[in-house]
Design goal:
Strand content: under 5%
Radius of gyration: 28 Å
Number of helices: 5
Helix content: 55-70%
Shape: elongated
Largest sheet: none
Length: 105
């Protein structure tokens, strides 16, 4: 009995009554707990970040526009981040890439 007090709530009769499905259920729960623990931490960090961003927006309403949450900023960021979905922008960027003149070294 590795856990203090375990002998009070788990007896030998408990272990004798264990079936295959009990073991499989315990293994399933432990596996999911171990594998998904980092996801819970990531979720907590995201909640903390979003809360901090809301507070920062309230504090810096006269500050730089990059940190203010607005539709204008969201539209600009989506336009810059999803340029590859616009076929014309893909052509423009491809042309710029292949026609860029490199300085001689």
């Amino acid at each position: 009995m590795a856990v203090i007090g375990m002998d009070r709530w788990e007896t030998d009769e408990t272990y004798e009554n264990y079936k295959v499905m009990d073991v499989m259920t315990d293994m399933f729960l432990v596996y999911n707990t171990i594998m998904h623990f980092p996801i819970a931490l990531t979720g907590l960090v995201l909640i903390w970040k979003e809360t901090e961003m809301n507070i920062y927006q309230l504090v810096t309403t006269t500050g730089p526009a990059d940190y203010q949450l607005s539709w204008t900023n969201a539209e600009y960021q989506l336009d810059q981040g999803l340029w590859f979905l616009n076929p014309l922008e893909v052509l423009v960027r491809t042309e710029k890439f292949f026609t860029k003149v490199l300085p001689r070294s």
